[in-house]
Amino acid sequence: MGISLKPITKDNWHEVMDLRPRDDQLTFIYSTTRSLAEAYIYAECRPLAVYDDSALIGFVMYALDPDDGQYWIYRFLIDRNHQGAGYGRQTLRELIHLMSREPDCRFILLGVDPANTGAQAFYQACGFYLTGGLCAGELVMRYDLCPNGPVPGKEQP
User: Fold this and answer.
1) Taking the mean position of all CA atoms in its chain, how far away is CA 21?
2) What pLDDT was estimated at residue 148?
3) What predicted TM-score, i.e. pTM, was given to this entire model?
4) Percent of residues, the chain, with pLDDT higher than 70
5) Which CATH number fits domain 3-150: 3.40.630.30, 3.40.250.10, 3.30.1360.180, 2.130.10.10?
6) Of the ranges 17-21, 24-28, 59-63, 78-82, which is most confident?
């Protein structure tokens, strides 16, 4: 597997919009169509297509949130046809690496629906931890970084 994160372009946006979660995940994640619309409106959003070599397998979006000045993972989706093959961990590893190069990014935040216990377990297994905070009804999780990347000794995705 050769996971890479690539910009959304005129050549891949239709295919990106066709990505779907599993049926049991539909209530937990916004569609890529909505996410791309948000990225168009909110310049701080960074939408990216996830590829395994040349095959599109997912979609992620992160941002420096203008409300709190922190880096957040806003969207994380591995297409239903590619789940269970280890792509999630590899994609998260690539996304953390990319975000760790952003100016002043010392930690990464994300929100998880309290009912989405599968996502909570996944992110915890990848080194995120619950902060005890809530944002828009979601549990806030955090991943700590060093100035040059992930914290040494922390479990890596």
Assistant:
1) 13
2) 53
3) 0.88
4) 92
5) 3.40.630.30
6) 59-63
